[in-house]
């Protein structure tokens, strides 16, 4: 309850605000739950089935979203709250006299601002179309801090999808130049920002731009895959993760009405009895010898349905970006471009494939790479975004038989009623 104009008066205050940026990312409405769960449910057909009693996630799964959906509204509000805090940090950098510390703080704030605008535009706007002008409405770009009532009363307009992506790219490219190669506080570093920018470029089908970023991370980032497919989830801050949401048993996104294990898990007394089931159609995509099937998928104790073992405890850390994803990004980009930067697509896919206990492949197609990506990154918040960028479709409706193409309005979150009224 500190007045905004008195909250940040010293360099230590600014550093505390940067820590606050990361604490906010653990909010249930952001990476603590919803930025993962919502994307999986929106593309959940034949991958993640909502069977729980909550109405809001059911609307996402069935594509029947209303503008008073509280989870959608809270995601919008919390994302912009953290964006605003990032803007406040950026406005107070003159208080920091140490040049290295100042650069790091600027990079952290720009990184957070960039990735949250990215999450918002992917959910609240029609998808990027490589063949279009992308002049359709995006989201509100916020680059000025709001700390007074008069500033809060200013009305903002939605920018185009193209302009939002331009701002995201600018923030992340600048963050890359400001962030250190390592951050002892487990916050973002240069390679984390590169990884998210690679995600942005992949979403835009800018494969020639995503490729060198993924290659730099793999070659120079100092990251390594964990020996087992579940290592990055069973342990905290492993060599495989570029960004993790830090949690523990006392400080986490929740264990009753929020939290990834709350909705995904159904064993050891964790979870609500299996709100998210894995359908047989997804299990059938996997080789019976695949370690991801034996270590990361199990039958629930309450309902006997399949569930993911990635999210098993409220206090576990949440990997948001893993090295495994970058191998698959490099493989896909090289395959599409007919190149072999860093490695051949076959070599990169085999890195992931053989870790899962499967024999080396002798050849791969683009479809093979995309399947490996789907199996490796399932239930990590990427599903609907991959459906959109690949121009695929998903199903919805009361009986899940209505087909929605990649650019359907029903796959876009509605601007919250509260925001429109305000």
Rg of Cα set: 21 Å
Oligomer: single chain
**Structural class by SSE content:** mainly alpha
Total number of beta strands: 8
Span of the ends, CA to CA: 23 Å
The overall average pLDDT, rounded, is 96
**What share of residues is helical?**
40-55%
Total helices: the number is 19
Notes on the structure:
By secondary structure, the chain is mainly alpha-helical. It has 19 helices and 8 strands. The strands form 4 sheets. A two-stranded antiparallel ribbon has the order 1-3. A hairpin with a 6-residue loop joins β4 (297-299) and β5 (306-308). α10 (207-220) packs across α15. The longest helix has 26 residues, at 99-124. The mean pLDDT is 96.
């Amino acid at each position: 309850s500190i007045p905004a104009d008195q909250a940040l008066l010293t360099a230590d205050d600014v550093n505390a605000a940067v820590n606050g940026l990361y604490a906010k990312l653990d909010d249930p409405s952001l990476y603590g739950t919803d930025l993962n769960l919502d994307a999986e449910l929106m593309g959940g057909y034949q991958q993640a089935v909502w069977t729980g009693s909550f109405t809001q996630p059911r609307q996402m799964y069935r594509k029947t979203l209303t503008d008073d959906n509280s989870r959608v509204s809270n995601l919008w509000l919390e994302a912009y709250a953290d964006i605003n805090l990032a803007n406040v940090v950026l406005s107070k950098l003159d208080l920091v006299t140490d040049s290295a510390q100042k650069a790091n703080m600027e990079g952290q704030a720009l990184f957070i601002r960039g990735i949250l605008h990215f999450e918002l535009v992917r959910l609240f706007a029609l998808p990027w179309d490589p063949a279009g002008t992308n002049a359709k409405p995006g989201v509100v770009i916020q680059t000025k801090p709001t700390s007074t009532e008069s500033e809060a009363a200013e009305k903002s307009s939605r920018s185009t999808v193209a302009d939002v992506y331009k701002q995201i790219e600018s923030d992340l490219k600048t963050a890359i130049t400001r962030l250190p190669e390592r951050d002892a506080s487990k916050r973002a570093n240069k390679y984390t920002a590169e990884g998210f920018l690679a995600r942005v470029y992949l979403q835009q089908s800018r494969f020639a731009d995503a490729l060198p970023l993924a290659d730099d991370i793999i070659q120079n980032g100092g990251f390594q895959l964990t020996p087992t497919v579940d290592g990055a989830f069973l342990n905290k801050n492993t060599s495989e993760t570029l960004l993790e949401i830090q949690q523990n048993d006392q400080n986490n996104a929740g264990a009753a009405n929020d939290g990834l294990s709350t909705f995904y898990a159904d064993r050891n007394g964790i979870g609500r009895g299996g709100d998210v089931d894995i359908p047989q159609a997804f299990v059938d995509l996997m080789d019976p010898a695949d370690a991801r099937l034996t270590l990361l998928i199990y039958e629930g104790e309450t309902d006997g349905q399949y569930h993911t073992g990635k999210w098993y405890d409220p206090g576990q850390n949440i990997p948001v970006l893993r090295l495994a994803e970058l191998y698959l990004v490099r493989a896909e980009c090289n395959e599409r471009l007919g190149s072999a930067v860093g490695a051949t697509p076959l070599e990169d896919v085999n890195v992931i494939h053989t870790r899962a206990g499967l024999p080396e492949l002798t050849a791969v197609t683009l479809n093979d790479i995309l399947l490996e990506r789907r199996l490796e990154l399932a239930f990590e918040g990427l599903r609907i975004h991959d459906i959109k960028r690949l121009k695929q479709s998903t199903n919805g409706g009361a009986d899940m038989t209505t087909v929605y193409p990649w650019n359907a309005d029903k796959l876009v979150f509605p601007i919250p009623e509260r925001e429109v009224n305000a």
